[in-house]
Amino acid sequence: MSAQATSQATWEQDVLQAEGPVLVDFWAEWCGPCRMVAPVLDQIQADNPDKITILKLNVDENPELAMKYQITSIPAMKVFQGGEVKTTIIGAKPKPALEKDLAAFIG
Fold first, then answer.
1. Which one of 1, 10, 71, 92 is CB 3.0 to 4.6 Å from 66, fit for a cystine?
2. Among 93, 104, 90, residue whose Cα is nearest residue 43
3. Residue 98: what pLDDT?
4. Residue 65: strand, helix, or coil
5. Is it the case that residue 2 has pLDDT exceeding 80?
6. Which residues pair with 87 in a beta bridge?
């Protein structure tokens, strides 16, 4: 199971109006660390299907959203709940470190 993509067109419904927490992985095709963290996020999603939704947003294809959420380096992950950013995680991390960062949502 891999993270679903979101975009400017579906952002409101996918992220801002979602039930429960949504982690958005801001990434780009050319970003090596982004490709490294993707399978880790897929594992976290598979381990916690009822607790958190993980979506990917390609910053090259959706520059307006990247600017709006002040994405200056990738990979950057933001957890949204109730339409608001609750936490931000910058950089590729191993699974235990990401799970610790997400403990409030998946714990």
1. 71
2. 93
3. 97
4. helix
5. no
6. 79
Name the catalytic one among 15, 31, 71, 74: 31
Burial class of residue 90, CB neighbours in 10 A (0-12, 13-18, 19+): middle
Is 13 a catalytic site residue?
no
Which of 15, 34, 74, 102 does the annotation list as catalytic? 34
For the question of residue 31 being annotated catalytic, the response is yes
HSE of 19, CA atoms in CB hemisphere, 13 A: 3
Per-residue pLDDT of 16-66, as tens digits, reads: 999 999 999 999 999 999 999 999 999 999 999 999 999 999 999 999 999
Starting at the earlier edge strand, list the strands of the sheet with 4-5.
4-5, 53-58, 22-27, 76-81, 84-90
CA atoms of 79 and 71, how far apart (whole Å): 13
At 67 the pLDDT is: 97
Q: Are 34 and 28 in contact (CB under 8 A)?
A: yes
The one-letter amino acid at 100: K
